[in-house]
Structures are given as C-alpha cells and as structure tokens.
Amino acid sequence: MERDIRSIVKQMTLEEKAGMCSGSDFWHLKGVKRLGIPEVMVSDGPHGLRKQNDKADHLGVNESIKAVCFPTACATACSFDRDLLQELGEALGDECQAEDVSVILGPAVNIKRSPLCGRNFEYFSEDPYLASQMAAAHVKGVQSKNIGTSLKHFAANNQEFRRLSVDERIDERTLREIYLAAFETAVREGKPDTVMCSYNQINGEFASESHWLLTEVLRDDWGFEGYVMSDWGAVNRRVPGLAAGLDLEMPASGGATDAEIVSAVKDGTLDESVLDTAVERILRIIFKYTDGRRAGDFDLEKHNRLAERIAEESMVLLKNDGVLPLPREGRQIAFIGSFAEKPRFQGGGSSHINPFRITGALEAAENMPQITCDIRYAQGYDVKEDRTDAALLAQAVQTAAAADAAVIFAGLPDSFESEGYDRSHMRMPDCQNELIREILKVQPNTVVVLHNGSPVEMPWADDAPAILESYLCGQAVGEAQVRLLFGLANPCGKLAETIPFKLQDNPSYLNFPGDGHTVGYQEGVFVGYRYYDTKEMAVRYPFGHGLSYTTFSYSDLTLSADQIKDTDTLRVSLKVKNNGNMAGKEIVQLYVADHTGCIFRPAKELKNFVKVFLEPGEEKTVSMELDKRSFAWYNTDLHDWYAAPGEYEILACASSRDIRLRAAVRLTTRTRLPLAIHRNTTVAELLANPKTAAVISSMTDALAANISGDAENSSEAAAEAITKEMSLKMLENSPLRSFKSFVGMDEKELAELIARLKDALETE
C-alpha cells in the first residue's frame, strides 16, 4: 500500500522524530506505536546472517543464530561473476525475510590499499571497477527479496589501526578514481537502501560529519535516495552529523544524542526541516520492508550447496606443474595440516557467522563417493601458537614421503587477521613454512592449499609444484577444495588482488598505517596492479591471474569503431576457444591504456570483464562495452571526469600481465580543459589548446631562434651545445614571461599578449 510518509512525520512530536534518528538498542530501530511505525531489526553480514537474539555485541564475541557462512568477499571477488554474486545476495535476502531482518549490513567495498589491513577479507579488491561490479550485483540480489543492504564503509576505511579517529589525507583525484569509485556504481546501479558511513576522518573531517561526502557526492552527484547510518560508534558530534546527512546513529545512544537534536532544533541551531528529511528517509525504508513482507526461504541445506558452488567458482589455482588434478583411485594421498581437518573459512569480528555445519577437506574426501584413494592424515602444526612441534613435523614428513602425493593445508590462523587490528607482516606462521619446506624435500608431488584473507609471502613457491588459493571460502570450503583438487570441478577463479613477493614491494609500504593521527595516501592512484604494472615490477602473482585444467585462446578482437566521441559507447568483441579436453570457464579481462599523454596515468586499468563457459573444443564470441568513464580520469579543475582526446589501446587479457590481443581507438571530445593564462603559463600549455595555439604559434619560431642563436654563423661546438630539438623542448617549457628575455618584449607588450590570449580562449 502507498504510505503518506510526510503526513506521518507531521504527526510526530519533536522528541519522536529525534528518537527515530538513533537505534532503540544494539540491532533495532525505534518504532512509534501510536502512528503504526514498527521497530525493525538490522543485522550483520555480508557473507551470512549474524542475527543475535540477546547479548548483542559488535565484534562477534557473543553467539548468533545458526546460519550459513558463505565465502567471504576476498574469495567471491575472484569469481569475477556478477550473476553468482547476485545469486548469493538473493539467498541472503531470503534468509533475512525468514528471520525478520530488514537490513543486512553489507557488502563492504573498501579498497585493499595494503595487504596488512585486518579487514581485507571482507573487502572485494584492490581495483575499484571490480569491487563496484561485485557490490552492485550483491546489492541487487539482496534487495530483489525486499531486504535492504547497507553499503559500507563509506569511505576510505582501509585500515584498522586507529580507525575511529585517524585522519586520512587523500587528494581529490585519488579519492574519486580509487576509493569513491568502488562505491559509485554500487550506488548508481545497485541502489542500496542504506549506506554506512565509516569511522575515520578524511582530510581533517570525520566521515560522519562530512556534508561533501554524505550529501554533495552521495546524494547530489550519485542520486542516492536511502538513508545513511553510522557504523557502530562512528558518530563524533550528532547534530553536525545530522546536518551533514547522517540520518541514523547506531547503536542506541541512551537518549543522549536524541536530546541534543531536540535542543538544537529548539534553539535554532538545527533547522527542523533537516530532521524531518532524515526521518522521512528512515521511514521510507522501514515501510518498504514491512509493507513488502514475504515468506523467506531459509533452507540450510540448499544454501550450503550454494556456498559450495560459490567456493568452487572463487578459488584460484595459482600454480600447477602437472600434479593436479590428483588421481581419484588407486593411490595414497597424504593430507597434511590442521586446516585439512578444521579449516579456516571466515574472518574474525562483526561478520563472524555461526555456521550450522563446517566441512573440511579431510571429511569431504572421505565422504565423496567418486574418490576411492587411500587418504592419510597428519596434523603437522598447531594453529594456537607459531612453534614447530618436532613430533608433529616428523609424523607429517613421514606420512608425505610414504604417499604418492601430498596436499598441505596451510595459511593464516584466526589470530593473524581480524577486524580491530592490522597485521604487522605478510608472513605465514614460521612453523607452517618450515613444514612446507621439509615436505617438499621428500615429496615431489606436493600441493599447497592456502587459507587466508589477504596475500601472504610464499618463500617456497618456486619449489612447490602446485598452489591452490582458497582464501576464506565459507563453511563448505572442504567440499569445494576436494572437488577442485581431484578434478571433479575445474578451477576458474582469478586473483582480485596482486600477490607481491614481499610486503616492502607494496606501494603503500612507507605510508601505512601512519603515525596514529594521520596517514598519507602518497601513492595516489597507483594502488595494486596500477603501481606494479606501471613500474614493471616483478610480482609473485599478478592481478587477474588464475589457471585452469584446460587452456584458452583468444582471437579476432574487433572494435565497433576505430574513432569515437566521448559520448559514444564502444563495443568490443573477441573469440575465446577452449583448446583442452575438459570443460571450463575463462575470465576475459578488458583493460584500457591511455596513450594521449595528457596526464600521468597507470599503464592500464580494468574497465570490463566477462566470464564464459566452454566445452572442450568450443569457441564463443564474447562482447563487452566501454563508455566515457572507461577512458576518463577525474580532473580536479573540471570537478568532473575527463577523457582526453587521442589514442587509447584496448587490451584483452587473461591477467593484468597476460595481454592476449590489442587494438587502438582514437577518441575526440568537445570538452576543453580550463586554461589559466598568466605570465607563467607555458608555451606547451598554450599550444595544446587550439584557440590559444593560433595566437602563440606565430611567435614560436622567433622565440626558438633566439634560444638557439644564429645557427649559420655559430661554431660547430655552439651548434652542438644547443640543437634545434633542444630549442624546441626549451620552448615548450618556457613561460610567457620569457618572451621579455628572448624576444625583447616589454611589460606592456607582454600584458597585451596575455589579454589577446584570454580573448581567444573566450571566443566560440
């Protein structure tokens, strides 16, 4: 039914309206019984339902209901599969309907600036395009079930160290291109019901009090229509926050901040219309949920099977020298490592799910009828402390040596990464690295299976024949691992982040996590592969990398045009063929390289992707589109996105380092960059603009001649000292004031030239 929200707000007292802007307890919003406004519940996500009925807490200390733990975002992003993320969202939406939860808190789309961030397991990628695409699909899936999502943490929550107060110094271009772009498509296309603001400050202002962030960018630029809620405890000052666009404070404030709002309205500090607007936004989402209630499908077994399928699609085969897939019968296979029995499948903190079942690889292999191998298990290490147990190590080495192949299940213990603190290094436990090295000495057919929420250093990677990256793949992790290891499924995930050789290689290394008060984002837009690829730095495994049990070839790259305007959409198509004897999926990544030279940009940037299933020998044509934003960078003078005129290269890749096909396109634009003309404007700047070039070009020959001198009468040494090419370069870098020195202009003539150039710039 249609509700007159404004009419309801007019009937509310000032105190009731103020009360609607904070929670009634840890997980519920307030209701107003006399007006038919119900209390509704929100609950943590985003990879499962963490509904707490009592003893509520934010960091997952107290138990929640039994639910399904799906793979975390660090894993699901590696699927590069929008449809799969939407299906995950639909399942979560069904569960929320069944449990009467109006909003699930997620997904989290913050950029993986550093591998050390303790919450990276909840985040999708180092790349804003991939993160935003995954988030938009997730949001659409959840909200198709009439459940709200809360896109978080807006914005730049890229570390846990002093996250409640740290001031993150980020230039506007970097903010727009990297850290806000991860949210933008998710807001514009996914249309989340709520957005959660982050704890931190951005350039001296708390996110919870930033009118620029919460209103000008989020609402005015992107068209967000839902309500903004705080992260739990993120409010610094309630009244300035409300004025900035922070509608709902969570959790409950005990009435303290409600009273502050009432007082501010009464004394004229806060316009009551601001409060009314916030309440309208909150009520619109509350009634959207309650008026659209439906039966929820919380089928634990069905959703467990979905969790397994998502895990299969998300794990990444990093290396395979022919050991995989393992034989399914007639051989002895050693499963080594505690994680084979009790896997690490999720991170710690507010997203911690209470799964109704957990299946490790050892249990899965023993119960899978297709596998009749003799599986032998050895614990190998203790996850509770990083100390080599000589007896466990000896038993593991002996078990591995006696087998036909060994699979080592290793990774990071819970204590190494969690919400609330950052990692101090990128290493795995020393006892596990030692275990891997010792087993590699006795067993040539060794596979390392990793469990981790973010990259780890792999000092043994060159010696290990095969490596499977599982990330944190949810409660059905063991079933997915076994199906992939034994070839019952074909690996198809690709890395959503770069794995460097060592922590010191990361572009944020010298500026993470700051001094506790501020942290500088000195690397700018050069985050992740944007840095490594531009610098041509060797990495352990590049962004977008992932192997299969088959091989794929690309051919016939075709562009819909070789010249486009910045208002056009470019259609890119190519053929992909499965050259092997096993069905599989390939992720084709489309990058754009800017060759215009207008500004220093990354060597290439991901701008689209497609995942295609192919039977053995099958070939399909895939198509993707590129629009203005695919070519553009954020120009802080225009305060808008700008695609410079010139040549761009379109790259069809299997990873950021595996370029298969190339094609060029020329782009034109009617947008002109603003040009400030003054005595220090350079000749190069003036020549780059057609209007001013017409004025200045007639004078450049004389200026160049004056710089290089009389070539005919110069000595050979003098001619070599200042060549024509050198003169031209010096000319490009010369400011207008140099005309006084080299052309003989006086101050009056220089002023007249500047006026003439300004007039030319203003002509139509």
Structure description:
- This protein folds into four domains: 14-55 and 65-290, TIM Barrel (Alpha-Beta Barrel); 303-535, Rossmann fold (3-Layer(aba) Sandwich), CATH 3.40.50.1700; 552-668, Immunoglobulin-like; 683-762, no CATH class.
- The radius of gyration is 29 Å and the shape is globular.
- With 764 residues, it is α/β, with parallel strands linked by helices.
- Helix 21 runs antiparallel to helix 25.
- Helix 16 (430-442) links the parallel strand 14 (405-411) and strand 15.
- The strands form seven sheets. A six-stranded mixed sheet has the order 10-16-15-14-11-13, with helices on both faces.
- Helices cover 32% and strands 19% of the residues.
- It holds the Pfam family Glyco_hydro_3.
- This is Glycoside hydrolase family 3 C-terminal domain-containing protein.
- GO terms for molecular function: beta-glucosidase activity.
